[in-house]
Amino acid sequence: MPVTRIHWEDLPAVARAAVEEHTGPVQGAATATAGANSGIAATVRTADATVFVKGVPLDHPQIRTQQREVAIAPYLPAASPRLLWHVQAAGWDLIGYERLVGRHADYSPGSPDLPLVARALVELQETPCPDIPMKLAQDRWSGYAGPGGAEQLVGDTLLHTDLAPHNMLVNDRAHLIDWAWPTRGAAWIDPAVLILRLMEAGHRAPAADAWAREQFTSWATAPHEGVALFSDANARLWDEIARHDAEAWKKNMGRLAHDWVTYWRGRQ
Ligand SMILES: Nc1ncnc2c1ncn2[C@@H]1O[C@H](COP(=O)(O)OP(=O)(O)O)[C@@H](O)[C@H]1O
Ligand SMILES: [Mg+2]
Questions:
Q1: 77 plus 139 within the same structural domain
Q2: Which ligand 1 atom is at minimum distance from the Cα of 5?
Q3: Do 75 and 128 lie in a common domain?
């Protein structure tokens, strides 16, 4: 269940004071309109800096994703914002990031953001996966993959796995944010995830596939069987997401995931 997003001013005073121990006195705050998972997501201004603050109540299940973000932060590529501090106070878990000035990536066909998005993902694909406890691709999708086969998702690459355009901030380059689901697995999984988001933005399956082949070695060399298995599993996962919550965009993602499966099965 998503957390209800509150404003900076609505945080308990003790929680705000704990943040101000790190930032200095806060002079103003603006709540982020995008993303819906964090109880608080706001740009917070002090006399000499602006930081991005995310937080969830300690007793909310979402606390796990925030803890994963904290754990992976030191290992992320330079383009991801630096994690500055982490505090718990007054029933809240709060983290502060370097604030990025940028806009959400435009994934539509012909968008000038696409080369920047590709560069950011290439950079991630080349980032060593740290040896810390982390979700494994074969575990995350095994429940949807059917018996056997999930071992095809095994790999040693650090994956983001939620490459939606609102998790990619663009200025002179693209910055990957919202590391709630870092996963170790086969390198071609992130390109597969990105392809679905490109389709959501209007790309046809063959065009998205061809583009990704040019950008990502892992995709150009991805095993047909492995991708087929992942694509099936992912389509089932999106079906489940859409069943639990009938938001139109989720239904649409489910439809696109099935379109992609059909395309991939027919591709030699
Ligand atoms: N470091 C940052 N600097 C500026 N804005 C950010 C930063 N991180 C996230 N945002 C903005 O806040 C939104 C929500 O943040 P995100 O980490 O995606 O949280 P959620 O878990 O709620 O999706 C993002 O879509 C983006 O617009
Ligand atoms: Mg987000």
A1: no
A2: 22
A3: no
Nearest CA to ligand 1 atom 18: 178
Q: Of the ligands numbered here, which is closest to the C-alpha atom of 69?
A: 1
Q: Which tokens sit at 72?
A: 């992976």
**Residues spanned by the domain of 246:** 103-266
117 shares a domain with 79: no
Q: Which CATH number goes with the domain that contains 260?
A: 3.90.1200.10
**Cα–ligand 2 centroid distance for 92 (angstroms):** 19
Tokens at residue 129, please?
């996966």
Task: Spell out the per-residue pLDDT of the chain, length 268, in tens.
Answer: 566 788 999 999 999 999 999 999 999 999 988 766 678 999 999 998 999 999 999 999 999 999 999 999 999 999 999 999 999 999 999 999 999 999 999 999 999 999 999 999 999 999 999 999 999 999 999 999 877 789 999 999 999 999 999 999 999 999 999 999 999 999 999 999 999 999 999 999 999 999 999 999 999 999 999 999 999 999 999 999 999 988 999 999 999 999 999 999 999 7
Closest CA to 233 of 169, 189, 182: 189
Report the distance separating Cα 141 and Cα 150, nearest Å: 7
Give the pocket of ligand 1 (CB within 6 Å): 32, 34-38, 41, 52, 54, 81, 97, 99-100, 166-167, 177-178, 180
- Give the up-direction half-sphere exposure of residue 220: CA atoms within 13 A in the CB hemisphere: 7
Distance from residue 186's CA to the centre of ligand 1 (Å): 26
CA dihedral 71, 113, 204, 188 (to 10 degrees): -30
Question: Does 18 fall in a domain?
Answer: yes
